[in-house]
Fold this protein.
Amino acid sequence: EDKVVQSPLSLVVHEGDTVTLNCSYEVTNFRSLLWYKQEKKAPTFLFMLTSSGIEKKSGRLSSILDKKELSSILNITATQTGDSAIYLCASGSSNTGKLIFGQGTTLQVKP
Amino acid sequence: DGGITQSPKYLFRKEGQNVTLSCEQNLNHDAMYWYRQDPGQGLRLIYYSQIVNDFQKGDIAEGYSVSREKKESFPLTVTSAQKNPTAFYLCASSIQLAGVYEQYFGPGTRLTVT
């Protein structure tokens, strides 16, 4: 059965800290790994990763995929209170065209 | 403005009543999806549709029904057979199937059944 597991499930840090969120996957015919940020409502897209070892970066956020380890990390440097959210990881299969989501990591950044 | 709209934002129903949640997109996307989100469980796929007049069950389809009569619209009906319908429901769309393309989400409908 395809599955995606995120860790930790929740995290509390202070502004300025750097955090690393983890995502591991077991997906038949893996095609892509996606990261989303969810605040109060709709998840917003952050990154899509398809190639191993190539870092994607957007401001203070970056992510990389390791196909050998079947995992990905999302790094946030110099965290701000506005980074507080649920971070969702999802993996796509070219077999089914569906995304399998992990449980999410709830990040709280304290001032 | 391009995007996905869901209505209503909050919905309250009595147990035993069917209720339909609306989802409309003007992104010209072929594929559309319905998810349910419960605390600590991430997103679980209810139904998805790749093209008009065709849809497939996701992982938790029991107690739900959908239709796809138009490309822009993918309404979800929560029937009285759904044992625990209170949840946050998210609609999403993608250019094609989401193994290859990212999904875009609507703002969600929070359904409370008492």
Remarks:
- Residues 28 and 93 of chain A are 6 Å apart (CA to CA).
- Chain A has a mean pLDDT of 93.
- The radius of gyration of chain A is 13 Å.
- Chain A touches chain B at residues 4, 6, 9, 31-32, 34, 36, 41-45, 48, 88, 90, 92-99, 101-104 (CB under 8 Å).
